[in-house]
Amino acid sequence: MTKILKNQLNDHFQELLNSSNEEELQVLSSLLKAYDDKKNNKYATYLSALTQIKTRFLENGDYEVLLPIQPLINNPLKMVHGGITATLLDTAMGSLINRVLPEEKAAVTAEMNVHYIKPGIGEILRCVAHLSHRGNSLCVAEAKVYDDNQKLIAMATGTFAIINRPQSQ
Amino acid sequence: MTKILKNQLNDHFQELLNSSNEEELQVLSSLLKAYDDKKNNKYATYLSALTQIKTRFLENGDYEVLLPIQPLINNPLKMVHGGITATLLDTAMGSLINRVLPEEKAAVTAEMNVHYIKPGIGEILRCVAHLSHRGNSLCVAEAKVYDDNQKLIAMATGTFAIINRPQSQ
Amino acid sequence: MTKILKNQLNDHFQELLNSSNEEELQVLSSLLKAYDDKKNNKYATYLSALTQIKTRFLENGDYEVLLPIQPLINNPLKMVHGGITATLLDTAMGSLINRVLPEEKAAVTAEMNVHYIKPGIGEILRCVAHLSHRGNSLCVAEAKVYDDNQKLIAMATGTFAIINRPQSQ
Amino acid sequence: MTKILKNQLNDHFQELLNSSNEEELQVLSSLLKAYDDKKNNKYATYLSALTQIKTRFLENGDYEVLLPIQPLINNPLKMVHGGITATLLDTAMGSLINRVLPEEKAAVTAEMNVHYIKPGIGEILRCVAHLSHRGNSLCVAEAKVYDDNQKLIAMATGTFAIINRPQSQ
Fold first, then answer.
1. Which residues are CB-contacts of D74 (< 8 A; sequence separation ≥ 6)?
2. Which residue ranges in chain D fall short of pLDDT 70?
3. What pLDDT score does B168 carry?
4. What is the spatial distance between Cα C119 and Cα C79, in angstroms, rounded to a whole number?
5. DSSP type of residue A22
6. Where are the domains of chain A?
7. Where is the Thioesterase domain (chains A, B, C, D) (predicted)?
8. Which of B61, B89, C5, C27 has the maximal Cβ count within 10 Å?
9. Helical segments of chain A, H only
10. Nearest to C140 among B117, B142, B159 (CB)
């Protein structure tokens, strides 16, 4: 049965490959890379693999997430899709909190408020998240997204519930 | 040059095909379908094609968006990724408003507030958006997401700025 | 010492009384009534006494708070002050949750999102709060404010943390 | 008719004066001061006069609002009422924007998101508002409230619609 599925997928892929123009092929390449990266655990989710985000702590304790802009994540107006921007902000705030919590705890988003300020265009969106309040049961974070010219693109605040980390996975 | 890219992509695809298990192949199939659907204008963005949402107006004027749950959109805890849920809510509210506006106008999200209430699990998430206020320069909408058992999964409100629709595209 | 304070207050009051026009006297009357009502425990806070809100459960389990519009709560544009509208929404949602919780628990507002839609003018603002989600540690509520003509004036959602009720008071 | 009202108010006042304890008299004093200050245009609204806020621009362009804590603005748990904190945040953000706009323009709150972090206790709450984005039709601001020990008490973001300033009144 897996064999049949593989044959079908290959047929579909050959057809898509033949009918694609160069811009579309770039997207197809992004999709295969995302699939590969998730498969090899370079990313924990397909969504983060699709966005190819890069994360790091800054020296002041804030948390930075870089998002390369590519056709795959754009809306029909050729700007970054608002859902992707929201994902970027949520990921930055949630990851920051999860990284400062003790190992047996996890943070889940209870609430997020996003302001969209300018279109997300250019090469890279840079998101910086800051931990505003660290409580025992609730944390509050804020995050801002900037474009290549350091212009503010979007900003958010979020409330995160601290729970006991589910076992395994 | 396109030829070289096609050969590279095909090599990468064959390699991925050979090394994938059945669950992974289902995701690969979803990725190819999304690419195909966007290519053929069944969806306006790759993100909506990836999520395979289905939309319709309800009789009372509300707007419904159905999102099939699939591994592609899950987080590591096998629940729908919060960024996808935010995208679903934003899409439902924004699409509703764009569909009730005159043709020369468009709505862009100025602000969105999302409450995450329960994990998104099961077969389908159903989002229903309602137009709370229709103004000349600002509209306000609200939306709720339910699971297969009609349990509330998430809810949002949004402020949308009404602009003159950009030409073409 | 209390005697001296009383004399000072009386002097101040007589001076204010003499210099007030009729519209101002109505406000002065409202202030004294609020002070009296809080003193006699008709209201739990000076702020609620100043606003003279009336509350009740509706048959469907929602919670209604009526706010009479008076000069005391207006902004310079002779509309209800946005801070009063926010207070009305917060009070309605928080009171609803506190009334459905067991006696040893209390709800405190963790986060509130308010949309201001139309000016609050007329005789009475009517706020209706609905419990969207009842969790063990977090509750989510939504509320809407209507004017005399049932037009939507404002709406809000809120996240409330459930805590053990502090002793006494 | 004004004479009769004055007599009634005076009777009521004397009765309240006689039956009040010292803590209550402090509140009565605050109420008279607020009434006086609004009457003499020291404050534009009764609500701001009741809260006795003090405002100023900081050197970096941010806007500071100081709120003295007094029994008049507390909730039954002897902390600053959440509605007052929301008013403080809204006032700080809205005043900041109104002060940077040209004279013929005004800002009205379209949406505000408030996070309550710690109880408002002590001598003074200090709110600092920052203009995050200045657009032609929408502005976005953020504000934080600190207690005497510079601990974060609450934070907010807001979306403000820019309108033509209504003529006089």
1. C45, C46, D80, D81
2. 1, 168-169
3. 57
4. 6
5. H
6. 1-46, 53-164
7. 79-153
8. B89
9. 2-19, 22-39, 46-51, 82-100
10. B117
pLDDT of the residue at A160: 98
CA dist., res. C104 & res. D129, Å (int):
37
Q: Which of B95, A112, A48, A34 is nearest to D157 (CA)?
A: A112
In Å, how far from its chain's centre is CA C137? Answer: 25
Helix, strand and coil percent figures for chain D, each rounded to 5: 40, 35, 30
Q: What local confidence, expressed as pLDDT, does residue A1 receive?
A: 67
Structure token pair of residue A111: 């609430």
In three-state secondary structure terms, A103 is coil
B169 pLDDT exceeds 50? no
pTM: 0.95
Place of tokens 């507030």: B113
Nearest in space to B142 (alpha carbons), one of D135, C100, D169, C157: C157
B151's tokens: 């349990």
Q: CA of A71: which chain B residue's CA is closest?
A: B46
Q: Edge-to-edge strand order for the sheet containing C54-57?
A: C54-57, C63-68, C124-134, C138-146, C152-164, C105-116, D105-116, D152-164, D138-146, D124-134, D63-68, D54-57
Residue D107 burial (10 A CB sphere; 0-12, 13-18, 19+): buried
Top CATH class, C53-164 = alpha beta
Chains contacting A (3 or more CB pairs within 8 Å): B, C, D
Predicted complex: ipTM over 0.95: no
State which residue of chain C sits closest to B134, comparing Cα positions: C117
Q: Name residue A124's amino acid.
A: I
The mean pLDDT of chain B is 95
The whole-number pLDDT of residue D36 equals: 97
**CB distance B159–D110 less than 8 Å?**
yes
